[in-house]
What does this fold into?
Amino acid sequence: MSERVVRQRVVRDEPVEDRTVDNRVTPVDEHPQNVADRVIWLIAGVILILLAFRFVLSLLGASTANSFANFIYTTSHPFVAPFFGLFKYNNINYGVSRFEVYTLFAMLVYAAIAWLLTKLVDVSRR
It folds into this structure.
């Protein structure tokens, strides 16, 4: 971002002075609402990436014996747990290839929540 300072000479009955006029325009990106939008999408992005890793690992049948797979499964569990009973998948067997529909549904719900929150922040801007 470049800053521009314009010097103007004002001629009146008084002696000529140098006055500094600050013509800086605050970019739209620096408004607090845009910062809030960015924070919301950052948090949503982390959650969505975590759930995407969980989906791919479960689809490929990653075992919890692996420390990375175990970290992804345990970290993403609180975000997916509200959707476990939604599609009648009662048994969760880690290490077996499975298509987790509830993980995809959780990703959709969290993306929609993030979108709605950013729209609420935008309403206050207008």
